[in-house]
Structure formats: C-alpha cells, structure tokens
Design a protein that fits this description.
Layout: H1 2-14, E1 18-20, E2 32-34, H2 36-55, E3 60-62, H3 72-76, H4 79-82, E4 84-89, E5 96-98, H5 99-127, H6 131-160, H7 164-177, E6 190-193, E7 197-200, E8 208-211, H8 217-222, H9 224-230, E9 237-246, E10 261-271, H10 276-292, E11 301-305, E12 315-323, E13 326-337, H11 339-348, E14 354-356, E15 361-363, E16 366-373, H12 374-385, E17 386-390, E18 396-400, E19 411-415, H13 422-433, E20 439-441, H14 447-457, E21 461-465, H15 467-472, E22 474-479, E23 485-489, H16 493-501
Parallel strand pairs: 3-9, 19-20, 19-21
Antiparallel strand pairs: 1-2, 4-5, 4-6, 7-8, 9-10, 10-16, 11-12, 12-13, 13-16, 14-15, 17-18, 21-22, 22-23
Helix pairs in contact: 2-12, 5-6, 5-7, 6-7
The structure holds adenosine-5'-triphosphate (ATP).
Adenosine-5'-triphosphate binds near residues 249, 329, 372, 373 and 375.
C-alpha cells in the first residue's frame, strides 16, 4: 500500500500533474502546485461537478464569494470558539501531534504486533504443529486486538466529551504498551484553532484582524437573501460555490489529501423546516450517484453516518473513498438546521428570513449541505486510475485510466515520421479539433514510446498520421484502455472523440 501511494506521488510529479509548492526553497509543508496536466484534470473535475450541480438543476445557482470576510462571520459561525483540533507536544523530540491521529498510530502498532505474532506462528507451525503454542499465540493476538479496540473506543468517548486529560492518559498508556523510541515526555493536550489569521489595513493601530476562510459555506449564508431576492428563488433552492479554503492543519502527511490551502466545492440547499431529512436523504443518494457515474467502482465507496455531530448539525454522513491508505472521508453531507442563518441574524442584526408567498409567512430556512474537497477528489480519481499492466507479450505498461471526460488531453496527434508532409497533416488535424478539445502534438521518439507516454498521461486517444493518410485521408485511432487501433476518416474524428469525452 505504501508503495502504491509513493508511486502516485512520484507519477504526479514526473508527468506534470502536481509539484510541491516553492520547491526550489525545499517546498512548504502540505502546500502543492498543480502543473500543466494537473490544472486541466482539476478544472475538468470542477466543471463536471458544476455542470451536474448547477447547470442540471433549475433551482440551484452559483456564487463566487470572497476569501476574506468580515471577522464577525467567524464568531457567528462558531469557528472562533470551536474550530479546533486536539494537539499534544512531545518534550523530547519537540514534535507536535494531533492527539487523535497519534492514538490511531499506536492502535495500528498494536495491529502490527498481532500480525507479527501470527506470521511467526505460521513459520513455526509450518515446521511442526504444536497445540499449546497455538493456543497461547491465539490468546496474545486476541489480547492485542482487544486492547486496540478498547483504546479507540475510549479515544472516541474522551474526544466527544472533550476530556483532554483522559486523552493524554490514553497516550501515556499506549506509550507503555508500544514503546517507540525510549521514554516519551508528553505535554498536556490543548485545543488548537485551525484558522489562519491575517490583517487588513496599513497602520498598526487601525489594522483589523481577519481570517482566511476555513470553508466556503459562510460566503453562501451571508449572501442568502441577496441571491434569493435578486434571483427570485423559491424554496427549496440551492446556492453552489467552488473556491479556496485554508486550514492550519496539524498533521499534514498524506499528499493532497490534507492540505493547508485547498479547494472546496460546496452547495447549500435551503428547505422548509421539517423537510430537511427528506432532502438530506435525497442529497446523500444524489451525491453518491455522481461519484458512481465516473466508474471508479462501487466497492470503493461507503457511507459513514456520524454519531457525534458538529454543533450546527442534526444529521451528517461522509462519503468515504478507498484511498491508497484506506477508506477516508471524501465528501460530507450535513443537515445544518437553521444554525448558520439564525447566528448571522443575531450577530448582524439583519433579518435573514424567507417570505413564503403561499402561506404569507416568514421563516428561517433549514439547510442541507454537500461539501467535497476538489483536491481530495483529484487524489481519488488519480490514485484509482494509475495502473501497472502486464501485456500479452510479457512487457509492462503504466496507464492512467482516467475517466475520459476528466482526462487533461483528449487526443494526441502523432505523425509516424517527422518528414514527407506528415507533420503538416497532423497540425491541420489539431487546428480543426482544438476548438472542441484539448489536443496535443508529439513527434519525438518511436511511435511505441509516444503511445506509452500518452497512456501515462491518461490521454484516451492517439491519432497516428502515416503514408496512407496522404492517399485516402484516413488515420489510425488508438484507444488507451484496449490499445485497439481502428482506421477511420479524418472527418469522423470529432464524432468519435466526442462520444467518449463529452460531459
Ligand atoms: P477531515 O475530517 O478529513 O479533516 P472535515 O470533516 O474537517 O475533514 P469538512 O469541514 O466537512 O471536512 O470539509 C468538507 C470537505 O473538504 C471534506 O470532505 C474534504 O474533502 C475537504 N477537506 C477538508 N479539509 C481538507 C484539507 N485540509 N485538505 C484537503 N481537503 C480538505
């Protein structure tokens, strides 16, 4: 699994998808840049989301609110008081950990201990079966696993009740059960606010403390009435937005899974109070179907219904995806009640209510939210698509089986030779196709190597111009996944590509 993940990271760099930020200065932790191919894939994911959420829904409109917002926004939303992660420092190593992640790491160590016992026993029993030894090994393994489960349950309880002393005690206990590098010397567990602060204004005295938004949702809530009135929107309706969000994450170690600057795609759906559960179920299903439409495999998704709810929610679920490091949250669907609109009403002193023309009454709508990280979605698609294949002749190829609709480049046009008029024809084909698709040209290296390079970039089609093209205006078109080649008329290319890559 580790190897698969390393492969994903190095492939993303080698083929121009993702680079570490400011790499010449040794990078900045958990901040990344999208390169020439990455930016296209990311844009296509965003467009695919936007089309299905906004264009395809009569009652959902878009918005692009600012990253900087009035600071009171974050008091009202609860982020100033409650947007925290539990943090613990190690006095010996001077390292900082997120307490819950540290406990999960220790639990994983217990798992590994159990696995080691099993492996050892396997080799021994392979030589001669010994019943007494079998029973004691069994007991030890059971012991480790039970210990692991109790610990995770205790952690969940202590975090839920914010019993930070208990979290610390748990870590110390685990240190004894799984000593790491000698004795560890832990500080108290503290709550750490994840918002990035900044300042607005020139002079030190008058400067105003601001935050970079940690979620895009609040920009939607504060604009709720503006959009509803000017768009003459009738409940139920939604407002969708994509944009950057910032979180000063304590652990940042899973490539673009957990970044400090990332992009969200969020939609807030405003409904009549009492109808929120109906729409919560509707959006859970609709969002899962959106994921399934990309064909990454049903077995790679599962719901995780939350038992512990955030202060604003009365129901919440994650859509989890099977990343190279296991099932983790990809998207959240939250029934946020009227918490946000009511809080903004209270803090701003402005009414944020909907006037229902059928009943002639005002009310504060309830909100159902769908919130997905664009970068996490990128990682899901990219890691799932990257495959090493052994071909019939025994050779291997690396192929990025991206859903064609998301591929950065839809077709590469390749002249068989660099002469005899073939490059000119190839360029003419490109001129004609580039109105509709991203098309690339490549004339370097043998044709087989050029095919492999396009496979690794995820390009669904390669179009090869050869001598026969001069005679009858036909080319070969090669399919990335099947590697099958067909001879077709140049005039048919647009249709063939379009059937596979259009949204
Ligand atoms: P996590 O539990 O993984 O920290 P969260 O529950 O805090 O995530 P939300 O606040 O619900 O996440 O944000 C909605 C979505 O935004 C998440 O499902 C995820 O896809 C994305 N997201 C959140 N934090 C990050 C991050 N640091 N880097 C990349 N994407 C993120």
């Amino acid at each position: 699994q580790d190897d698969i993940f390393k492969n994903v990271v190095s492939h993303a760099k080698e083929y121009g998808f993702i680079f570490p930020s400011s790499e010449i200065y040794d990078g900045l932790s958990a901040v990344y840049d999208y390169a020439q191919n990455g930016v296209e894939l990311k844009k296509n994911i965003r467009d695919y989301w936007w089309k299905s959420m906004v264009q395809m829904h009569e009652n959902i409109v878009g918005l692009d609110a600012s990253i900087l917002m009035h600071p009171t926004t974050w008091k009202a939303s609860g982020h100033v008081d409650a947007f925290n992660d539990p943090l613990i420092d190690n006095k010996d190593s001077k390292k900082r950990y997120r307490a819950d992640v540290l406990i999960e790491d220790y639990a994983e160590k217990l798992n590994q201990k159990a696995q080691k016992e099993i492996d050892k026993a396997r080799t021994r029993f392979g030589e001669a079966f010994n019943e007494t030894e079998f029973v004691t090994t069994n007991e030890r393994v059971k012991g480790y696993l039970e210990q692991k489960n109790t610990i995770l349950q205790r952690m969940a309880r202590s975090l839920e009740t914010e019993n930070l002393a208990d979290v610390k005690a748990l870590i110390e206990e685990l240190e004894i059960a799984c000593p790491d590098s000698g004795s560890k010397n832990w500080t108290d567990v503290k709550q750490f606010n994840l918002m990035f602060g900044t300042k607005l204004g020139a002079s030190a005295e008058s400067a105003m403390d601001l935050y970079l938004r940690p979620e895009t949702a609040q920009g939607i809530f504060v604009n709720f009435l503006n959009v509803q009135k000017t768009g003459r929107m009738k409940i139920p309706f939604g407002i969708a937005q994509t944009g950057k969000a910032f979180r000063n994450e304590i652990v940042a170690r899973q490539f673009i899974f957990r970044m400090r600057e990332f992009e969200q795609m969020e939609m807030q759906f405003f409904v009549k109070p009492g109808e929120e559960m109906k729409y919560y179920e509707f959006w859970k299903e609709t969002r899962l179907n959106w994921h399934l439409s990309l064909g990454l495999g049903r077995q790679n998704y599962r719901f995780h219904d939350h038992e512990k709810l955030a202060h604003y929610a009365n129901a919440a679920a994650d859509i989890e995806f099977n990343f190279p490091f296991g099932f983790k949250e990809l998207e959240g669907i939250h029934s946020r009640t009227d918490f946000d609109l009511k809080a903004h009403e209270q803090f701003s002193g402005k009414k944020l209510q909907y006037f229902d023309t059928e009943t002639n009454a005002n009310y504060t709508p309830y909100v159902v939210e769908t919130s997905i990280g664009l970068d996490r979605m990128f990682l899901a698609v990219f890691s799932n698509s990257l495959q090493e294949e052994t071909l019939e002749d025994g050779s291997t190829r690396t192929v990025l089986r991206l859903p064609s609709v998301l591929a950065p480049t839809k077709a590469a046009v390749l002249p068989l030779l660099k002469k005899e008029g073939l490059p000119e024809i190839a360029h003419k084909i490109i001129e004609d196709l580039r109105w509709d698709f991203n098309v690339a040209y490549d004339e370097k290296d043998a044709i087989g190597r050029r095919y492999r390079r396009q496979d690794a970039l995820g390009t669904p089609f390669c179009i090869t111009v050869d001598h026969q093209t001069i005679e009858d205006e036909t080319v070969t078109i090669r399919h990335r996944d099947s590697m099958k080649q067909d001879r077709v008329k140049i005039s048919e290319l647009r249709n063939i590509i379009n059937t596979e890559v259009s949204m």
